[in-house]
Amino acid sequence: MYDFIIIGGGTAGLSSAVYACRANKSTLVIERAAFGGQIVDAPMVENYPGIVSISGAQFASDLFDQAEKAGATFKCEDVLQIVPEEGFTTVVTDCGKYQAKAVIIAAGCEHKRLGVQGEDRLIGSGVSYCALCDGAFFKDRTVAVVGGGNAAFSAATYLAGVASLVYIIHRRDEFRAEPTVVERTKQLNNVRFVTKAKVTELVGDDELTALKLDVNGAPQTLDVNGLFVSIGQQPENDIFAPVALDEGGYIIADEKCRTNIKGIYAAGDCRYKTVRQLTTAASDGAIAVQTALAELF
Fold first, then answer.
1. How many helices (H) and strands (E) does the chain have?
2. Which of 134, 257, 269, 270 does the annotation list as catalytic?
3. What is the pLDDT of residues 247-277, one digit of tens each?
């Protein structure tokens, strides 16, 4: 029996662990893959308050060390089920069962990937899934955004203020983004549209240098320095039933990170929210712990 079980070892989960341990509560962090979360792939982080510049891998390593030194216990296991019971919650993994007064779900979500040759190899070397996080590294360079929704157009608009040229690549000639957003983006003089197109391969050895496209059935090569994939995110929250989810599969939690089940909280990218950044993930982790301390201990 632990005071806290935290599911997920990214920024939200590790921040939760730091706050829980500093409150002198026994804390278990369960992560199915590698601790650190998606930020590990970022070549540089320069938008976290108080840290001028740090690699994503170093940021994650430092946060893990901080949680470990605070007293957190870590297990690399795959959570299969959570079972709310009277006064505590049981977390079932592929290796055993654990119980806690408070459970914080900080499982994050995965960016949808293109699934083309070269993508995995060039993540952090020209390929990014967050324009706000990495756009500044492409100042005065040529970049491309793949996607046709509001998020893609928001990324392209931001990048247009940084890069010299921005391509928006979309598989159809109509966009899912709001018409006013599309029209506003079309007014930007350094944005170009490539429609009825799909990326078939990413080119580059150590860094991205070009995209191979299929444009309406014809092959084409586009020279770019950066590619921002904005085709959506995919949470994997079904295993957390009976915690309530929205239509997109994100956990419904209030501003205090409370779910519909007493004693179960959600922090970070796995919950419904409008901004997903390191700062908001860390904030969620702190809020979830403080809420649990006030309500359960």
1. 7, 17
2. 134
3. 989 999 999 999 999 999 999 999 998 888 8
Q: Which of 21, 133, 257, 270 is catalytic?
A: 133
State CA 26 to chain mean position distance: 27
Q: Which fold has domain 2-109+235-296?
A: FAD/NAD(P)-binding domain (3.50.50)
21 is known as an active-site residue: no
- Pull the structure tokens for residue 18: 């730091």
Residue 3 contacts residue 99 (beta carbons within 8 Å): no
Task: Determine which one of 3, 21, 41, 130 is catalytic.
Answer: 130
Q: What number does CATH give the domain 112-229?
A: 3.50.50.60
Query: Looking at residue 257, what is its pLDDT?
Result: 98
pLDDT at 226 over 90: yes
- Kindly state the percentage of the chain with pLDDT values over 70: 99
The first and second tokens of residue 20, run together, are 């829980």
pTM for the predicted model, two decimal places: 0.74
Angle CA 15–21–26, to nearest 5 = 120
> Is 134 considered catalytic here?
yes
Question: Is 15:288 a contact under the CB 8 Å cutoff?
Answer: no
CATH 3.50.50.60 in the chain, residues?
Answer: 2-109+235-296, 112-229
